[in-house]
């Protein structure tokens, strides 16, 4: 019980936010809905009252028992006409509310999904590397549909409360004790609803990791990227088996939940019927003793029944609201995530702007780095300097730490120890957006946007998306022009297989587009992480033949496994297991006859 009160209190604090959210979604609709709800809520008590009036008036007429007295028809017909009017008003307002709340709910849903995406896009990369983050995101996203229901639940609850209050008022005239009696015998129903909601919330929240696994399996079985390999290795059956195992587990849990509270529910229903029985008995007794009119007796019968069903639905709706609110707490938990809530998130950023052109270049000073949540140093005391406008290659075995170096330079992470200086200032002193604007980078796992060819290049500098000259020039530098010329609608062709009429490209062709995207960028620093790995030897040769020309005025850092490319760099950094073991030009490093020379010769031999 105490635990439930605590949860209730926790949930209550979200009510104002939920109200505010719905209000923000559409203030006009919200107002109209509440207005109509009031009309709708008062319709039923008004009907009860009018029935009482009609019965009393008819009864008076019968009691007069003088057939010669003229019947005062307006006296009888007016309440009957009002009854009809109330019926119409009630029905019309109800159907209007239904239509409006569907729209408002939809708006609220989109609004919240938008908020979630906006929040996710402000969070550091470090968040996206922790499974717990995906669980939170999954919980918040899968529950955002509940926002769709919250507006109408709020409206229903307030309407039901208002209707109940009015009906209570009708009964209180006859005997105020009726109210606590009906309340007390109905209250246990509310507790059962809350318990059910709590249990459900717990099950669903704990289910998030398994739920994500199910989505993952669904993707493996239905996405183009995986379908080839899954078929070839015959993985459909085992994946489907897992899928059914988890879904069966979900169904069992849901079933257990659905029936666990039914026995208690029956008891609480019996109790509330007992409460009504007492009120009815009281009414009959009073009427028999002529202490109340026949109209009053009719009122007691109707009102008590109305209160029982009204309380029942109120408690039900409150239960659903409570349940939704518990889930909404997940949503707010996500929206309230502090930017540094995860290990490894960036702590600070300054306001410094990057100077153009760069004067001192880039310096790594005793930089070490561990990924959040891991023990191993991926970079270990690395120091080097890159002159402005130099061309630098980074080489090393897989896992040596090359990409990590780039992630630090683009400030997706901060070093665990040491510092990275740009023009003599710590990266942390710079305005993050300005710093990133100065860097054009194509990662190994670059994105293939299933959008137009033009956008695939233009996204490199989105402000210039409409400037065809720049896009064509960038396509020229990245070697993408022949690729685009082959497409049915040239730059306007949609790529990929996600959308109708999409043209799919080979790995090398996609890479040429990605390369063009990097050249599109008006940045001082160009970073290419294995930019030509998917290109054939000739295409790569073409790119690098013009590399110096393409990168004039830019500081260029590239990672490559092809030494024919690497040897063109002015400066080569050799990484081994997180340490910088050699540094110099191709000629210098060959003369040193160390690791670089060994790697170079090994590759050269293969090509002989
Ligand atoms: P390279 O680019 O030289 O192949 P990386 O910089 O990608 O190497 O990776 C260096 C090491 O860091 C690898 O051992 C890899 O397993 C580890 N690593 C890379 N990314 C992460 C991450 N997000 N979390 C934990 N470890 C990582």
Tell the overall outline.
elongated
Q: What low-confidence regions span 5 or more consecutive residues with pLDDT below 50? A: none
First-residue to last-residue Cα separation: 80 Å
Bound small molecules, deduplicated:
adenosine-5'-diphosphate
Q: What is the strand tally?
A: 10
Tally of helical segments: 23
Strand arrangement, major sheet: 6-7-8-3-9-10
The radius of gyration is 36 Å
Mean pLDDT over all positions? 85
Helical percentage? 55-70%
- Percent range for β-strand residues: 5-15%
- The chain-level structural class is alpha/beta
Sheet with the most strands?
6 strands, mixed
Overall description:
There is one protein chain. The chain is α/β, with parallel strands linked by helices. It is 62% helix and 10% strand. The protein has 23 helices and ten strands. The strands form two sheets. Strands 6-7-8-3-9-10 form a six-stranded mixed sheet, sandwiched between helices. A hairpin with a 6-residue loop joins strand 1 and strand 2. Helix 7 packs parallel to helix 12. The chain is elongated. It starts with a helix and ends with a helix. The mean pLDDT is 85. It binds adenosine-5'-diphosphate. Adenosine-5'-diphosphate (ADP) binds next to helix 13. Adenosine-5'-diphosphate binds next to helix 13.
């Amino acid at each position: 019980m105490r635990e439930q009160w605590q949860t209730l209190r926790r949930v209550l604090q979200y009510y104002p936010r939920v109200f505010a959210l719905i209000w923000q979604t559409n203030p006009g609709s919200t107002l109209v809905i509440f207005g109509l709800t009031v009309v709708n809520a008062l319709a039923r008590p008004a009907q009860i009252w009018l029935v009482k009036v009609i019965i009393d008036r008819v009864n008076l007429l019968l009691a007069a028992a003088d057939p010669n007295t003229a019947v005062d028809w307006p006296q009888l017909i007016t309440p009957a006409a009002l009854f009809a009017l109330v019926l119409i008003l009630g029905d019309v307002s109800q159907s209007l509310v239904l239509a409006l709340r569907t729209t408002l709910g939809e708006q609220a849903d989109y609004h919240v999904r938008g908020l979630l995406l906006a929040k996710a896009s402000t969070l550091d990369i470090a968040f996206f590397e922790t499974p717990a983050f995906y669980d939170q995101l999954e919980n918040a996203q899968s529950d955002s549909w509940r926002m769709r229901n919250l507006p109408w639940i709020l409206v229903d609850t307030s309407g039901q409360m208002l209707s109940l209050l009015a009906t209570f008022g009708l009964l209180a005239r006859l005997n105020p004790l009726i109210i606590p009696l009906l309340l007390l015998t109905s209250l246990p129903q509310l507790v059962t609803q809350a318990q059910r909601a709590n249990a459900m919330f717990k099950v669903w929240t704990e289910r998030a990791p398994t739920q994500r696994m199910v989505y993952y399996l669904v993707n493996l079985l239905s996405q183009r990227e995986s379908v080839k390999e899954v078929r070839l290795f015959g993985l459909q059956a085992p994946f489907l088996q897992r899928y059914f195992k988890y879904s069966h587990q979900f169904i069992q849990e849901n079933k257990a939940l659905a029936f666990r509270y039914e026995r208690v529910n029956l008891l609480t229903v019996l109790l509330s019927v007992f409460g009504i029985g007492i009120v009815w008995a009281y009414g009959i007794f009073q009427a028999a003793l002529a202490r109340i009119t026949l109209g009053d007796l009719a009122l007691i019968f109707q009102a008590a029944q109305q209160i029982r069903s009204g309380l029942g639905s109120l408690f039900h709706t409150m239960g659903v609201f409570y349940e939704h609110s518990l889930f909404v707490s997940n949503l707010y938990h996500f929206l309230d995530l502090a930017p540094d809530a995860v290990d490894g998130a960036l702590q600070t950023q300054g306001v410094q702007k990057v100077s153009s052109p760069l004067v001192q270049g880039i310096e790594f000073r005793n930089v070490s780095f561990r990924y959040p949540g891991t023990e191993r140093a991926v970079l270990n005391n690395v120091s080097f300097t890159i002159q402005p406008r130099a061309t630098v290659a980074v080489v090393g075995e897989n896992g040596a730490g090359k990409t990590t170096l780039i992630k630090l330079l683009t400030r997706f992470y901060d070093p665990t120890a040491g510092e990275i200086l740009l023009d003599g200032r710590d990266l942390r002193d710079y305005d993050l957006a300005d710093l990133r604007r100065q860097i054009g980078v194509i990662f190994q796992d670059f994105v293939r946007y299933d959008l137009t060819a033009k956008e695939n290049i233009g996204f490199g500098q989105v402000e210039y998306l409409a400037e065809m000259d720049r896009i064509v020039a960038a396509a020229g530098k990245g070697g993408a022009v022949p690729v685009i010329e082959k497409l049915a609608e040239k730059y306007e062709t949609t790529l990929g297989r996600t959308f109708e009429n999409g043209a799919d490209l080979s790995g090398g062709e996609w890479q040429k587009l990605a390369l063009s995207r990097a050249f599109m960028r008006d940045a001082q620093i160009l970073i290419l992480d294995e930019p030509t790995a998917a290109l054939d030897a000739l295409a790569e040769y073409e790119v690098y033949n013009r590399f110096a020309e393409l990168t004039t005025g830019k500081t260029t850092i590239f990672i490559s496994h092809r030494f024919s490319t690497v040897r063109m760099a002015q400066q080569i950094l050799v990484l081994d297991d997180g340490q910088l073991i050699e540094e110099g030009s191709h000629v210098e490093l060959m003369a040193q006859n160390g690791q670089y020379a060994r790697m170079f010769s090994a590759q050269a031999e293969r090509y002989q």
